[in-house]
Design goal:
Elements lengths: L1 H17 L6 H12 L1 H10 L8
Helix pairs in contact: 1-2, 1-3, 2-3
Length: about 55
Amino acid sequence: MNSHLAILLSICLIIGFLGRHRKFGFWGFFFGSIFLTPLIGLLLLLASDRKKAEY
């Protein structure tokens, strides 16, 4: 059971890391993946837009 939880959290961390330059940011994708499952988090990541550059 603990290994499943570690794998789930690792996948959520990876999704959060990949989404750090998107509109929801790291924490948005990380918690979205935890609450909505990693598959939904990945779909949200793929559908989201990048942040606009700040000058």
